[in-house]
Amino acid sequence: MIQAEAVGHILQVLRKKKGLTQEQLSGLATLDRTHYSKIERGLRNPTIDTVFKIASALDMKPHELVKIIEENVDFRF
């Protein structure tokens, strides 16, 4: 699994654990739903601003979200 897809999968799992649809989460994060969908599908990489917005929508601190991603994605190049 490539990195963007892995990050997207983690975001999808966290969103579903909160019982949110993509539309609900993107609304809470003030993101376009289509853009958020592309992030979850690994077609787009989130900017740092977007990571902060998604973390807030998931009731997490940004560093908590980044830690989960870091622990679950192989970033070796």
Automatic annotation (TrEMBL):
Descriptive protein name: Helix-turn-helix domain-containing protein
A Pfam family it matches: HTH_3
Occurrences of domain HTH cro/C1-type (ranges): 11-65
Keywords noted in UniProt: DNA-binding
Highest taxon above the source species: Bacteria
Organism this protein belongs to: Candidatus Intestinimonas pullistercoris
A cellular component term, taken from the record's GO annotations: cytosol
Example of a GO MF term: DNA binding
